[in-house]
Amino acid sequence: MRAEIGRKEMKINVIGAGLAGCEAAMQIADRGVNVTLYEMKPQKKTPAHKSDLFGELVCSNSLKAMRVESAAGLLKEEMRRLGSFLMRCADQCQVPAGGALAVDREVFARLVTEGIENHPNITVVHEEITDIPTDGITVIATGPLTSDALAEKIENLFGDSLSFFDAAAPIVTAESIDMDYAFTASRYERGGEDDYINCPMNKEEYGRFYNELINAERAPLHDFDVSNPKVYEGCMPVEVLAQRGEGTLRFGPMKPVGLTDPKTGHRPWAVLQLRKENTAGSMYNLVGFQTNLKFPEQKRVFSMIPALHRAEFVRYGVMHRNTFLCSPRILNADFSVKENKSLFFAGQITGVEGYMESAASGIMAGINAVNALLGKPAVVLPETTMIGALSRYISDPGVKKFQPMGANFGVLPELNNRPRDKKERGKAYAERALQDLNIILGE
Fold first, then answer.
1. pTM, rounded to two decimals
2. Domains, the chain, ranges and CATH?
3. What are the Cα distances from residue 170, in Å, to 206, 222, 284, 319?
4. N or C: which end of the chain has fewer CB within 10 A?
């Protein structure tokens, strides 16, 4: 799958230097093909982007579970075996996060940027692309925050690109967390005991917090059609989630299961977990607290959590538009356009949801862009692998009400001898996937 070619004059365009675009560019360049990577930063940024660096993590700094027996962990292991550039970067800047792989987002973006800029086969052009190229082979990896001009061209071409809304969680300084009201522990004692700071609440405290949360003032959504916005479940604003019922948060981002407050010896009524945002541990992310509340409201309401009563917010949560294609009608499983095999899409614009899912699609789009250039057959991984299953999901014409999909065992074919135990079931899925992937890789 990694055959080198010597004709350096051949070139592929990649548009967008986010996770999918950087992964695609590196896969192409590592195969001896020159890449022109177009990125509109720093001249122009989307409302959610703050950094000039490539591979910016807009929402959480967590890349989800590490255990290969989990869906997210299996995805990352498959990426490693495919030579993922971003996984190499992530492993170099990991921060403690229990059973999850979390990174120092600034160091991560710097490593990604340096790797791209220093590759001899990659030429970076800082320019906004406002039209779909018609010559040569192109990978569009402009992400869920595709600029308005290009998004309009894509919609004109395909007729039904969709929009939904995504939200980011606030970040607070470590020194402003009152540890008299908090304790360190990982849920179910997975990972290091200080990987998370847990902010417990009793029933009365939670009730007051809940009432203020659902009644807090939200920020207006600019430049969107807000008459009927779609919100992806995985990034549901905490205030929207709370409106489903008072117990919803206690079974979601504030679930207390697997945690015991050492001050009381009992499980709290509700818990907000804080995860390290950087290697130094000077900043913490409010896990699962993506929000669209106005900034003063975030300060007021979240400070009602006892451990955060004097919290200093270094970043407030924001909400922004995401755009994705109706991919089952538009894309093949190799991420090429059905009516134009020289045009590929990668990343969340294809309907894969999540950081690593986006990066994985970039791997496959990059591999297949090279194969298209060389006239070689497309590579689609077995449906028993997580990457192969997601590739088929986004290209399955039988999916009628298409919505973004992240890694989960539900997209994989059922096991022949399905273990009843959940952990054993995950292990069986992972073993089958990696065995089938190794066959493809010739290992």
1. 0.77
2. 11-161+325-441 (3.50.50.60), 171-321 (2.40.30)
3. 19, 20, 9, 11
4. C
